[in-house]
UniProtKB/TrEMBL annotation, chains A, B:
Protein name: LacI family transcriptional regulator
Entries under Gene3D superfamilies matching the protein: 3.40.50.2300, lambda repressor-like DNA-binding domains (1.10.260.40)
InterPro entries: HTH_LacI, LacI/GalR-like_sensor, Lambda_DNA-bd_dom_sf, Peripla_BP_I
UniProt KW keywords: DNA-binding, Transcription, Transcription regulation
A GO MF label: DNA-binding transcription factor activity
Entries under SUPFAM superfamilies matching the protein: lambda repressor-like DNA-binding domains, Periplasmic binding protein-like I
HTH lacI-type domain segment(s): 2-56
KW DNA-binding (keyword) present: yes
Database matches in PANTHER family: HTH-TYPE TRANSCRIPTIONAL REGULATOR GALS (PTHR30146:SF109), LACI-RELATED TRANSCRIPTIONAL REPRESSOR (PTHR30146)
The organism's place on the tree of life at top rank: Bacteria
Amino acid sequence: MASITDVAALAGVSAATVSRALSGNGHVSAATRGKVVEAAETLGYVASSSASSLASGRTRNVGVVVPFVDRWYFSAVIEGAQRALMERGYDLTLYTLREDGAARASVFEQFLLRKRVDAVIAVSLELTEAEVQRLHALHKPLVGIGGPLTGVRTLTIDNPAVARLCTEHLLALGHTRIAFAGGSLDEDGAFDLNLSRRQGFAQAMHGAGIDVPDEDYRSAEYSIDTGYVAAKQLLGRPHGRPTAIVAGSDEVAIGCILAAKDLGMSVPRDVSITGIDDHELAAFFDLTTVAQFPQRQGALAVELLMDDLHPDAADADAAPRSTALPFELVVRGSTARPAP
Amino acid sequence: MASITDVAALAGVSAATVSRALSGNGHVSAATRGKVVEAAETLGYVASSSASSLASGRTRNVGVVVPFVDRWYFSAVIEGAQRALMERGYDLTLYTLREDGAARASVFEQFLLRKRVDAVIAVSLELTEAEVQRLHALHKPLVGIGGPLTGVRTLTIDNPAVARLCTEHLLALGHTRIAFAGGSLDEDGAFDLNLSRRQGFAQAMHGAGIDVPDEDYRSAEYSIDTGYVAAKQLLGRPHGRPTAIVAGSDEVAIGCILAAKDLGMSVPRDVSITGIDDHELAAFFDLTTVAQFPQRQGALAVELLMDDLHPDAADADAAPRSTALPFELVVRGSTARPAP
DNA sequence: GTGAAAGCGCTAACAA
DNA sequence: TTGTTAGCGCTTTCAC
């Protein structure tokens, strides 16, 4: 494994010059740079990240903290972040935070403190006050995605607006009896994602002058199963069956579609259904949904962090602090006018 | 950020003793260790990983290279590996390898060479000969999972046996006209996973003395869509319709189930279907499948690497080099005796 | 634009 | 068992 002094010797310059030539920090004449690059290539030189980190205090590594990796939304965010980081020569170190316990604590007490990362991306995390403190105590650039991190700059779509959009799509088609499936309220207001989508639905219905009876709100927890159960309840009624369902996520919506099919109903003829996310399965189920773009969210988080890490006059004001994340209604075959 | 000398000063010992006391390398009296630990705690000391790596040559970090993160199997392996690594105080750095190109090359030419990882786990990767060379050139412990890495110690289930198991389950139920959906052959023998599952099916059918016509093999590529298409073809036939389908993966099997439903057929009354994986959606679709346990595979890979990294006399022979990975038939509701 | 030299914070001989 | 002493391989002042 060639070291910087080997390269320096071969190129006939000092180690300092090699460092400057390869890192781009400091001025090196084009001629010297050429020699250095060539020497580095012939030797197959790659700088040791630990030596470089120790000397410079920068690791070129970003920590990504997620609650799960085996769920589509999270893995998509990770994928987007990883791609964006790799382009910039950064590594991605992954931390998963489960239920409480020693393992969870150690992420905050040990892992993130090792000076292994320059910045942290926290995805949809429900953190305690103490944990947020810990993150801030790192004094490292930090950005949240999709979650309710108080005091942390967070990228998130406008959830009420998204749910309103779904609802208004159905209203515009002529539906008036619309139910909502998603977001239980039992927890202590925990994840405001649930609540905010529900509120968006309520706003839209209110705006249309329609009263929604309590029985038309069914809770469902971001899974096909709970969506299935919710829809069975909604659609199995002898009277007052809704003609459309706004689901809080695509998983829930898919559960609703399957429940409708199992009841012998046809989507969208007997019931229209909308989702949120544009999950990888949404197209397959021909689901009308509002796409958010988790890969892009991951990439955007990386861009924000890079602005912090490399504050150039150029992009100083190029990337405003809180961008409203894009979302988009994707109309597929699960919604139509109600049967006359 | 307290450093080791701060701890040493507070505990009234030398930096070397702090290092020994905290790392467990070398002998330290219980009394001294107590003082050191206490001092470290009051100062909130956590060793700098870069300094430690530079001095010791060990990073306490493992690289995991995957083709995708946003597919269930891969994300489950990652999750399992991450959990196992964290327990041992190791970090996980994630690399995704996409289509060819500069990004892909740079993983091998730059990222993995930075001395940032002590070992590498390669998941279901189809690597070129040159890329495998690169991995070996790292001279770091390396273990593959599920993929065909020539010359690399690889953890994989016995794919032919798994497919045989599915097939024999159906044969035992009384099916005789069984089709196979999965694993296209078009590529240059590329991923032997495809081929080997197909072969297992063929072996079982052959063993039962049943000839399978070519038309009963349909290719499908580990996705719901292609499974759906394959099943439509198989089940839509006016004559010689199979009474059961062995799918090469759960995604394909789910596609088959949906296709059957859309044709108005009932599963398992009109057609029995088996999958492979025990995907997170399998239970929901009530799919009979052969479970492999990707989380455990990730964890097992970590154990193997740890044996290499920390060769203790104790486990020297405790973990045999090539364990046959466990798999298990999970019989759910998608299979039954054929209609009489 | 380039080199010399100091030092980042830790670990591992080697002594004591 | 503990302290002393060199580095590990880079980056970054500070001169020139």
